[in-house]
Design goal:
This protein is an alpha+beta fold. The protein has 3 domains: 2-143, no CATH class; 156-249, no CATH class; 261-413, Ribonuclease H-like superfamily/Ribonuclease H (Nucleotidyltransferase, domain 5), CATH 3.30.420.10. The chain contains 12 helices and 17 strands. It has helices spanning 2-13, 65-79, 117-131, 159-168, 198-211, 219-225, 234-249, 309-333, 349-356, 361-364, 373-379, 404-413, and strands spanning 17-23, 37-39, 52-54, 83-84, 91-95, 100-106, 109-114, 133-138, 141-142, 145-150, 153-157, 254-258, 265-272, 283-290, 293-301, 342-346, 383-387. It has a 6-stranded antiparallel β-sheet, with helices on both faces. Strands 15-14-13-16-17 form a 5-stranded mixed β-sheet. Strand 10 (145-150) and strand 11 (153-157) form a beta hairpin. The longest helix is centred in the last third of the chain and has 25 residues, at 309-333. The chain starts with a helix and ends in a 15-residue tail after the last helix. The model is unreliable at 419-428 (pLDDT under 50).
Length: 428
Amino acid sequence: MTTIRTFLAVAVANNWAIEQLDINNAFLHGDLEEEVYMVLPPGFQNSKPNQVCKLMRSLYGLKQASRQWNAKLTKALQNMGFSQSSADPSLFTKQTCSSFMALLIYVDDILVAGTDSIQIQALKQLLDNAFKIKDFGNLNYFFGIEAFRTPKGINLCQRKYTLDILQEYGFLEAKPAPTPSVCGQKLNSSEGNLLEYPEDYRRLVGKLLYLTNTRPDITYSVQQLSQFVDKPRDSHLMAGHMVLRYLKGSPGKGIFYSSNNYLRLQGFSDSDWASCIESRKSLTGYCVYLGDSLISWKTKKQVTVSRSSSEAEYRALASTTCELQWLLYLLADLRVEIIKPVALFCDCSSAIAIGENHVFHERTKHIEIDCHVVRQKIQEGVLKLLSITSQNQTADGFTKALSKPLFDRFHAKLGLPKGSLEIKNNKG
């Protein structure tokens, strides 16, 4: 999804045409490399007993089907002059002297963007001749995400998906909550009673996880809920219901990518030290902007226990550094030139010192070597660590539950539209 968001942010900023298409019966186009036999379908078994079918082409349900289809499509695109991205194999690009075209694949759904609409139409014709496609025209609805483009930019939201969740769990008429989680609340695995039907909770968490693709404001809350899917309790379900009540107040909210955007990469990294009351592991939170467009964010528990807040912040910096380096590779494939060094903001001066100073041996000798990727990228001139106050730290909302005033500030920094859409009836 980060690749998709980056793809759209770059396309909108460069005023590229964005179109969508679908391959008919994609898995049936795959070529089998080994002999595969199938039991005769119902109706043929009685007429031809003790016989089986030898498959000449791929079928839906085969383990090999998705891989063989991907190989077939990749080969076809490469024969058309496209180059496959090393940063993300689902991205293909084609550069000519007069045009540039980028193509993003998700199984059988394809997004095409480029500088020349004639070249895009020619590509569609080639794909239709090879596989038979459905042409959906300009980007409108894909992967459950609604895209609305205007001359000012493109807005991405999951309003229909959100309304379906609210209807399924009976929250269409619920009272909206001002924030997705209670400030200072720490969920654990011992308080409350075990749920009789844990499948409902797991299904809810799965749906909310997909909703975070366009709703960064609920990322922290959903991350907390996802830790208890093995043995959920009623306290966890209540916390999930608060997220639903928050979504009830603004089901159509999403992210906006402006067409008037200077493509400058910058990141924000933060950590909440020993926030897990059971394991005492810290929480990493980061977000990355391409100009004014938020393209990447994450909330994740760190894999080891940090001995100090500085170490926790430094581990968060390492995770953000890896994300920034990968995005630089991805943007290079999209022919976007990023001015280096990339600014990475952190509100911990000691973590910045660890990244820039080799003298802190006694304090850092226990930290894993892979964390020192931060130092390496600073020395290579890839990024520059900059200090920022905690009040201005955008990533703060990805590491903890905030009060209403602080959450509103965090919400505004994400670039999400203001206001809310009350649901008056079941039709929304």
